[in-house]
Amino acid sequence: MAQRILYDAPTLTISYNYDEEWLYLDWHGNLDDETVMAGALKVLELLQQERCAKVLNDNTRVSGLWADAAKWGSDVFFPQLHAAGCRYFSWVYSAERYSQLSAELALQQTTAGIIFMPFRELATAAAWLRSM
Q1: pLDDT in tens, 66-113
Q2: Are strands 3-8 and 12-17 parallel, antiparallel or unpaired?
Q3: Among candidates 58, 43, 56, which has minimal Cα distance to 95?
Q4: DSSP one-letter string for 55-106
Q5: Which distant-in-sequence residues (6+ apart) come within 8 Å of 129 by Cβ?
Q6: CB 96 within 8 A of CB 62
Q7: What are the CA-CA distances from residue 100 to residues 4, 11, 120, 132 (Å)?
Q8: What is the Cα–Cα distance from 60 to 96, expressed in whole angstroms?
Q9: Where residue 53 sits, what CATH number does that domain have?
Q10: Best label site of 98, 122, 123, 130, fewest CB within 10 Å?
């Protein structure tokens, strides 16, 4: 798989998968509003740079509650992501309940025009995104 790391920080690694033409977001650790918002802005920048329409968002190694960032995501970030060309967003939930609630909040509130699909397993999420 031809994948290149574009960004690597303590809570987020962003790669571009050249075979699948999507951004892979590997979030890790205990997230809070500040780290989620900072990471999201980096995602926006790299999505524009790579001109891709698909995101594989992996939260399997995440914990923490980031409800304010979720609200900001649905109101501000997702519409910007859509304007930048994102059309499909595959979201793998964390097993940790608070993180899961934050993700659900972000997805329930948005009217961005992006097709979001939540998953429990990375393989299923990737398969769905591949079919888009």
Answers
A1: 889 888 998 999 999 999 999 999 999 999 888 888 888 888 877 778
A2: antiparallel
A3: 58
A4: EEEEEEEEE---HHHHHHIIIIIHHHHHHTT--EEEEE--SSHHHHHHHHHH
A5: 20, 22, 54, 56, 88, 90, 117
A6: yes
A7: 28, 16, 10, 24
A8: 9
A9: 3.30.750.24
A10: 123
Domain count, the chain: 1
Q: Which domain covers residue 27, as residue numbers?
A: 3-131
Q: Each residue of 17-56: pLDDT tens digit? A: 999 999 999 999 999 999 999 999 999 999 999 999 999 9
Contact (CB, 8 A) for 1 and 19:
yes
Q: What is the pTM of this model?
A: 0.92
Place of tokens 């926006």: 44
Tokens of 65: 């509650």
